[in-house]
């Protein structure tokens, strides 16, 4: 027997497989409502497998699938007592797309299929409603021409509009039967003109063409784009539902509507929706007439209203989730056409989760699963007033790199950002791209806009880390730094002009858009506490300053997984000493310069320990190549040489010597400590002395510094640096009144280290995967340059996502898993974490949970996201027994 590609509504049995995978979301809903005895017009679902087979068979529907479709048409005819193409009693159907995950507005549907001239006449007689028959006919021609033949909507829309004007009709409902008859004739003519063929009259031919069109619509550009944005696989295909029509356009006792079982904006428990009387299908969403609030239905037809409310509650109980439903009323009788889990704001998601829990409908795990981790982002930053956004018009759009809503005066460099901000003027820093030198300006800016760079560009990473709104990679943006203005799609914006950035959409606006500040409501806290009870993966934060540390603790971080010490070197008051160290010609000079840095760094660490108390803090030693600390502009070089007491030529000489062709793979990380052990020595003193000082202040705290050596690729290399650390630390501790323990671990971010993890673990007290570097070294492309060509990889479906944003599970992930296993072979209780950007990405967190890591560490603002994602992962793949 050939494979089953078509299921009549209600026919599917659980043993057939996963209902959503096979029948799609819409088909699953229709089948489940049918089984529950709800009023659903009968029909059948052509499976997603049929869609995939259509593509495998070079875009042809195979004969066995056609046969199964026709068998189900026969069945539908028998059940409905109507016949395809029978003028006396015609069967009309809708052909509806329905992928597993709803893709609102992305795919196509054809209504009223099965009409031709004779059928239309018959329909008019049968219903004694000529107007209705011709209204259905003209809708069908229009949709068929657009969806099936790609002739577009416009030329048909024009005919309709012209007829409305001619007849003095404001709404389509005012057109009479004979007006509509004329339109149908004009439509058919237009169809012939555009297609050079008559409009097809055979219902079965219409049906196959429509099914093909729906399969085809799976790969229309907007559907592809939507899947990319929402992380939906391109391979799953769409199902097609063929369903008997019910008519909301039969007169004033008929209608159509859409409604949620709860308010999707705030989660309140009441029916929320809209409807139109004497209308069909998409009229409600298309804004042809202004729809009415669903409350009005109570007055127009209280019986139907009650039945609908009851049905909504039943569906909620069945799905244990808020529902989004479509219905039609035909001559006073209610029909359900669709149900799905409703999309909602983060606030609504939290309230619905808590309410359904309190109603006893779901348990804590189910409640936690009702909130999408990535949604929480929007609760943690101030946002624009949605009302104000509706009327505002963006002048451009780019990558929504870091969420938030920012308004401020435009400045073009970091220095100005600092001065203006200190002058109490909020600023938006607009740069071609940012670099570590801009860090202070970025701290002071309300928002950051860059012309270049992707989601993991310097601007994006730093902005997310400090919770500042950032819109990145705006390729349409041209900056004239000299004359201090930028151009964007024809708008000229000068220094000091006010603009607004929306970090959740990437939109750029001129002027100030009012914001509302984020409130962490009670429901938020409740859901997070359930998540914490459930999860086994720990969540730490990446924090470089006491302020970041405080934010992190506030968001529930269980420690710091990464303190980048170089950020401490860039501050105005210190960079001079750092430069002095770099230009030193002898070890003595270098040590002298480092002596100046030591107390500053020690104070930084003390501040962090004060905030974190006994929570673990992992401090990473100096990582970037030294040239990053030196100036590049001629003017700066002169000035700095003077400050350093050397000649311009001498400084230039140092810069030339430090130049590298590929700094990312150059003299950085632990390689610096191998060449200049005194740097590691100074950093060890700063860490250990800080811990001792704070322990002395708080006798009951037990502080255990975690020292992390970056960019290790070889056991002897780690041992070399570790020996310096241990010697320095033990000497200080032995002379101190405080008994201090510390540990020395390493980052695994070079593929060689992952390969030799069992060796490396001999000298490492812990591992932390630096997945940013590990990704770029494994792929062999730089994260700063990959953005330029990765788009063509997405377009050609070679890669689906940015591997710097979502861990590449099969490649880089394999190294992570392997290194974890190898490391624990040497040390069974080895603590293993992740401190790359991936630590805050929900799907990556799930992966890290699955491979058994101890913790993830991410930007403070993503800590709640990671906590919730870790709970989701535990529920789906339990580790706890
Ligand atoms: P979408 O997924 O874009 O919502 P649908 O397949 O749900 O597309 O159909 C679009 C509209 O047509 C919806 O408003 C739906 O209620 C209506 N519709 C679909 N099938 C029928 C039918 N058999 N009878 C009446 N209306 C229908
Ligand atoms: Mg729909
Ligand atoms: Mg690194």
Summary, kept brief:
Helices cover about 45% and strands about 15% of the residues.
Could you explain how this protein is built, in words?
The protein is α/β, with parallel strands linked by helices. It contains 36 helices and 31 strands. The strands form six sheets. Strands 12-22-21-14-15-16-17-13 form an eight-stranded mixed beta sheet. An eight-stranded parallel β-barrel has the order 24-25-26-27-28-29-30-31, surrounded by six helices. The protein has a five-stranded antiparallel beta sheet with strand order 1-2-5-3-4, with helices on both faces. It starts with 5 loop residues before the first strand and ends in a 5-residue tail after the last helix. The model has no long low-confidence stretch (mean pLDDT 92). Residues 41, 94, 96, 105, 109, 111, 243-246, 281-282, 326, 328, 337-338 line the site of adenosine-5'-diphosphate (ADP).
- The separation of the N and C termini measures 44 Å
| Alpha-beta content class | alpha/beta
The helix fraction, in percent, is 40-55%
According to DSSP, the number of beta strands is 31
